[in-house]
Each structure stands twice: as C-alpha cells, then as structure tokens.
Amino acid sequence: MEKRIGTITILIKERLLSANINQILSEHADIILCRQGLPFHDRSVAVISLIVEGTVNQINALTGSLGRLPGVECKAVVTKNNQS
User: 4-78 belongs to which CATH class?
Assistant: First the structure.
C-alpha cells in the first residue's frame, strides 16, 4: 500500500488523558513527521496538530486509537495519492 501525507488534528477536552495520548503517539512515532501542541488553559482544551506520512491503514490506526479515548476528538486529512 502506498504512503500518503496528511494532517491530524486532535482536540483534547480532558487534560488528564495526556499520558494516554502521548503513549498512543509514541506507538505511532514512525509515521509522525511533525507535532505541534497548544494548550488553552482558560478554555480547558488543548490542540495537537500532526503532520504524518504513512499508509491509510497506519493513519487510520492512529486516529482510531485516539478517537476512542473519552474527551478526545480527532480528524485526519490525507492526500488522495502520493505527491512526490
């Protein structure tokens, strides 16, 4: 299966889950090219954005694992094909 480039946005409403989120991200570190996080302390939410490169199955596995956590919303956008 060919690799695709994409972005994943993670909205975290439950900050106590940060250890779980970091564990999942570490398990999928091989497809993560870039990670940026921004906590909004006054709004009790945090945002993590990722740039990833992997197969659709790898990207879906990551977003699925994150999306199953309570208080976490996760969306991915990937290229339709590998654009070299």
Answer: alpha beta
Domain boundaries, the chain: 4-78
Which residue did the predictor score with more confidence, 73 or 80? Answer: 73
Q: What is the pTM of this model?
A: 0.89
pLDDT tens digits for range 45-55: 999 999 999 99
d(CA 53, CA 6): 6
Question: What is the C-alpha to C-alpha distance for residues 74 and 30, in angstroms, rounded to an integer?
Answer: 19
